[in-house]
From TrEMBL:
Superkingdom of source: Eukaryota
Family indicated by similarity: Belongs to the protein kinase superfamily. AGC Ser/Thr protein kinase family. RAC subfamily.
Domain AGC-kinase C-terminal: 187-264
PANTHER family per record: RIBOSOMAL PROTEIN S6 KINASE
Pfam families: Pkinase, Pkinase_C
Keywords: ATP-binding, Kinase, Nucleotide-binding, Phosphoprotein, Serine/threonine-protein kinase, Transferase
A GO MF term: ATP binding
Protein name as it appears in the record: non-specific serine/threonine protein kinase
EC number: 2.7.11.1
Keyword Endoplasmic reticulum: no
Species of origin: Caenorhabditis japonica
UniProt key word ATP-binding: yes
Length: 308
């Protein structure tokens, strides 16, 4: 993955709260939220559930666009209606169905979007306790409190994303991301321009060089760099030495995923396109969402990072 010089949203939100005592503005949160929805919609169109959405995994590039990082918890071959049951994720962002030890689907990602959007606009998590038992109880049964400064459109969006029943959650139907795209909160978004990165980000990192680390906490940048010690088998090793080293990995195989095509379900793509056709008639600005499915055979995804 290339260097995301703008740092992560956790860093930027913390700084915003420290300086202004509140979260991001709604326009700024809307921009980030729209790019996140496009990214997750693309993953879902390729039958991938992300499962670890949080501010620390949302990075900014040099222009201020969102990058989703850390695909270690992704699950492939999950289309609409499919389920998995691995308990994984970050405690504060876990969806209720994961905590209840139920089978869950791709809708867990939309719960994560709700938590992230709430955090960006309110400057705090919707549910929090240092005691994980209490935290999980809040996620399962706690009511959400909204600051009075939030617009009605923002409250409706968050309430829809943070529905505890995944079947009733915004984005939980077969239309997936399209349900969220047509919410009133995102009504002013030009989705075609957003997809093509033609909309100027609300914040552009002020960096001095390609190696600028000013948007990363000194707690991390001040740590000494410790490289993995090299093996005795260097680039000038003999063929015999290289073969001897390879015997240590006889039980492992290597598969180059870079540039390989993602698996897809042929039956799901026409359904997704049909939904997009309806959306085009209702709202021409959402036509580009169709690209998320229409290009699934032409695009590849390196499971190291995703750039929208």
């Amino acid at each position: 993955m290339e260097f995301a010089i703008g740092g992560d949203l956790y860093y930027h939100l913390n700084r915003e709260v420290q300086i202004h005592k509140e979260g991001f503005s709604e326009p700024r949160s809307r921009f980030y939220g729209a790019e996140i929805v496009l990214a997750l919609g693309y993953l879902h169109a390729n039958n991938i559930v992300y499962r670890d959405l949080k501010l620390e995994n949302l990075l900014l590039d040099k222009d201020g666009h969102i990058k989703i990082a850390d695909f270690g918890l992704c699950k492939e071959e999950i289309k609409f209606g499919d389920k998995t049951n691995t308990f994984c994720g970050t405690p504060e962002y876990l969806a209720p169905e994961v905590l209840e030890d139920n089978d869950y689907g791709r809708c867990v990602d939309w719960w994560g979007v709700g938590v992230v959007m709430y955090e960006m606009m309110c400057g705090r998590l919707p549910f929090y306790s240092q005691d994980h038992k209490k935290l999980f109880e809040l996620i399962l049964r706690g009511a959400i409190r909204y600051p009075t400064k939030l617009s009605q459109e923002a409250k409706v969006l968050l309430a829809g994303l943070l529905v505890k029943d995944p079947h009733q959650r915004l984005g939980g139907g077969p239309e997936d991301a399209l349900e969220i795209c047509r919410s009133e909160f995102f009504r002013c978004v030009d989705w075609e321009a957003m997809y093509r990165k033609e909309i100027e980000p609300p914040y552009k990192p002020n960096v001095q060089s390609e190696t600028d680390t000013s948007y990363f906490d000194k707690e991390f940048t001040s740590q000494p760099v410790q490289l993995t010690p090299p093996n005795a088998c260097g680039p000038l090793a003999t063929v015999d030495e290289q073969e001897e080293m390879q015997t240590n990995f006889t039980q492992f195989s290597f598969h180059n995923t870079f540039g390989s095509r993602l698996h897809e379900d042929d039956e799901e793509v026409p359904a997704f396109r049909a939904a997009c056709q309806v959306m085009r008639q209702q709202s021409p600005g959402l036509a580009t969402i169709q690209l998320l499915a229409a290009r699934e055979r032409k695009h590849s995804l390196q499971i190291d990072f995703f750039l929208i």
